[in-house]
C-alpha cells in the first residue's frame, strides 16, 4: 500500500518545521541569562577539582597512605556529605 500526502498536509508540515527552526534560532541568538555565569563557574570548579584529583591520586611517587589522605580531603571538600547522607537515609 502506498501512502500519499496531500498538498495541505505537506504545507502544514513545512510550516511547523520552519516555525520550530525559527524558534530554536531565536533561542540560540538571545543573550544568555545571568545563570550562565553561575554554570560557567560550576564547570570551572568541576574541571579544577577533577584535574587536582587526577594529579594527586595518580602520582606514582606518592605512597598509598598519602593518596588515601588526599582522597579523603577531596571527598570532604568537594562533596556535600551531610546532604548526601540525609538524602540516602531519608527521615530515619
Mean pLDDT: 76
Succession of helices and strands = HHHH
**Main pleated sheet:** none
Kindly estimate the percentage of residues that lie in beta strands according to DSSP. Answer: under 5%
Helix content: over 70%
Which class do the helix and strand fractions yield?
mainly alpha
Task: Quickly count the domains.
Answer: 1
Runs in which pLDDT lies below 50 for 5 or more consecutive residues are: 20-26
State the shape.
Answer: flat
Question: Strand tally, please?
Answer: 0
Distance between the termini: 62 Å
Radius of gyration over alpha carbons?
A: 26 Å
Question: DSSP helix count?
Answer: 4
Outline of the structure:
Helices cover 76% and strands 0% of the residues. The longest helix has 23 residues. It contains 4 helices and no strands.
